[in-house]
Amino acid sequence: MNETNPLIALAAYALAIASAALLLRAVPTITRHLQHAGESRFASIDGLRGYLAFGVFVHHSIITWIFLRTGVIDFPPNNLYAMLGQGSVALFFMITGFLFWDRLLTHGHRHDWLAFGISRVFRLYPLYLPLMLLVFVTVFHLQGWELKEPGSQLARQVLAWLTFDRPDINRYPQTGMLISNVTWTLAYEVFFYLALPLAGMVFIYRGSWRQVLLCLVGIYALYQAVGWEHSLKKHFLASFLGGIAAAYWIRRPQLVAWSRTRTAGIVALLALAIAFTAFNRAFKAPPLLLLGLFFVIVASGNSLFGALKPRSIRWMGEISYSTYLLHGFVLWAMVQRLPLWLQVDARDAWVYLPLLAVCTCLLILISSLTFLYIERPGIALGKTLLNRLRQRKESQKRLAQKVAR
């Protein structure tokens, strides 16, 4: 198996899309969900999510293959496979920046911050908490249920994982590798959510200079408090700017009209191809500019010649959070633990490739189930809580009005 061969990625994507298409045929609930969801305002972005989340899986599958053969955890030497990870994450950050800045621009002072906060909590945690529990149980199972840390230290580890950090659990080395360390991106997402109202006060609401200064200080304080582990943290955060730029781009009718043309589709694909083949890191100015150009065209509604429209791709977009969050553990279980149980050598390409194929199908199936039975109920629970809080607030308001009379 040659880790530079692009056919591996093409075959994996084809298998994932076929698996999603089969699920659509076999599970009426999925079809009904897509029909109920309908065509969103940003349908092209919904399709893009599916490609991105699965791209991170392909990226980590190549890293795992290299690790099995060399014992070294490192980026793939091939630009395509390196960028399937970093480039996909950069575009995910752009999607976040775009969607929420667009809401600020649309709603202005009417933006519902309570709904925003509750929706983010109930979007991230319903799936993350079971995964976190699975990691802790796995660690203790591998260690024979022996407690190697004092209870206070274990409690600190639990708290750190709850905030998306990944310290070693109970002295199990490189615990984060059980999930391919994917949760680092969630910390950046949370920082963006926390900084969003402050950034809105600075750039959209535009109060007094004292208010602006206090908000800038608040953003800096948040930036310091999170305690990033990455030396390129500013470059990671810069990718959100591509999404924010797209929120302004779509408010220019002439730009949107051009972005939906065939020419724009070609430009977008060329920008993506150059970014994914000429660079091996996404968080630098040239690849970020190329990815930003690609993204503003997609955000404007260009389906890239229909590549973002199929129902199977839309479903992969729906389950993208599950795919992203769970793929590391599925990959670890299938290509690192299962071969030990089967007594086969996963360093053999003819063992690894079939395992990877099974892992691909299993990932789409598991992600579909966790979306339907964990993510979707979690989102609904958040909406229910929000409605109850609003009803309580309205009741208190009516009661206060009666007392005032």
UniProtKB/TrEMBL annotation:
Q: Transmembrane stretches, by residue range?
A: 6-27, 48-68, 80-101, 122-142, 186-205, 212-228, 234-251, 263-282, 288-307, 319-338, 350-374
The protein's GO terms of the molecular function aspect are: acyltransferase activity
Acyltransferase domain residues: 43-366
This protein is called: Acyltransferase
The protein's superkingdom reads Bacteria
Q: What keywords appear on the UniProt entry?
A: Acyltransferase, Membrane, Transferase, Transmembrane, Transmembrane helix
What Pfam families does the record tag this protein with?
Acyl_transf_3
Provenance organism: Pseudomonas ekonensis
